[in-house]
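Risk mitigation, structural track. In case the binding assays with adenosine-5'-triphosphate fail to produce interpretable data, a predicted complex structure has been prepared as a fallback.
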Amino acid sequence: MYTHEDLARLQAQSLKMQGWIRQQTFSPENAKRLRRFSSWEVSELIFGINQSTFRGRLAADPSLPGGEVEPDGRQRWFSLEEINELRRRMKINRKSLMPPRPSGKRAVRAAVANFKGGAGKSTVALHLAHAAALDGYRVLCVDFDPQATLSHSMGLTDVAEDYTVWGIMARDLIRETDRMNAGASAAASGSALPQRRIPQSIRDMGLDDLRHADFIKSTAWSTIDIVPSCANAAFVEFASAQYRHLNPEWSFFAAVSRYLDDLADDDYDLIIFDCPPAIGYQSMNAVFAADMLYIPSGPGYWEYDSTTSFIGQLAEALEDLSHGFDGTFPAGKMELPKAFRDIRFLMTRYEPGNELHRAMFEAFQKVFGPHVLEHPVEMTRAVEQSGRFLSSVYEIDYREMTRETWRRARASFDRAYSEFRGCVQCVWDDL
Ligand SMILES: Nc1ncnc2c1ncn2[C@@H]1O[C@H](COP(=O)(O)OP(=O)(O)OP(=O)(O)O)[C@@H](O)[C@H]1O
Ligand SMILES: [Mg+2]
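Fallback model:
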């Protein structure tokens, strides 16, 4: 017979191994570092201009950042900061290289969600974030998944649970309860309204004293920040159920949305959520805060099956919220009933040469029509091989693998990103 103590012992053994693997896979400083990008990549793949035009511009204006020159060759290598400076300062045919961004509007929020495990959510979230940053956007990622794949991939491995979505939710519970209590005692009927009590143990955690910025961590990419997750945040689902019991009127699903509402409109351009493979308190927060629902799905029949039940269960959960909080919900930037400005299905791990995959893609299109994104993300060894800490194809130096494999992988993610970018523009038009 085995009890929780045996499980805890097994976990302790596993944690030791985990520590060892981390030491082996991280650079000596134990920090993920972003590589430089070659002038070929910067001109043709990032700015979409001719390489010789780019070289000409750099030669003509010595005040522009010139990158680092390879010891043996002509190729120059640019940091992300240098790329962003070039983007701000260079014009090509009098056209700016800055990506379109309406002023006075807030960041567009996209949730990458599906309760199918391994559908490619974290891979898609990571690649969209990196592609957007290379396109000149400022990105905030929110990791809602205690598996913390996205946080680890972005180099954050030592995160305390206070600084995760759980911290945001617990802080929100305290603040919302205080707000409701104040409202109740100020009302004409006064003491007739019940006062909700938050146990001292929750207040004593000091979460209410955390500032907004405390939850946001920087990453190896200077224009990508993240609200990270960690394995310890796995108890959020239990804790949230308990918190709801303490204050049944607490709109638990809107905690993260309220948190994001307090960001300045121009702090970020895009906010990307990576969701856990489950419908629960965390994913409901992600979904509620999102303008856009991005649903990745693999090309197999079972994946189609579970994507279908995912949208069914999500529909039910959202309907329950609408009824349960009808009329009592304080309006923020999101409202009830929850309405998305866009819903898209993105096929992942797709092999164009595989007849079955093509048939499934057609089936998706037949059923979901224009909600299916035109460009599936292809199955690629570039991502498979990136190791324990997912690295995006953008992070991997193309000299480390067959150039053709890298180019194909990058082209596939680029196409997926450019469709995403189009969807984002439509949401901005709509906001
Ligand atoms: N396009 C791709 N080509 C090759 N491998 C891929 C691709 N997309 C995802 N994978 C691999 O599939 C596995 C699952 O991907 P990922 O972690 O992104 O899924 P997920 O939906 O986030 O999983 P979970 O539900 O556990 O959070 C990973 O090992 C990843 O490397
Ligand atoms: Mg994941």
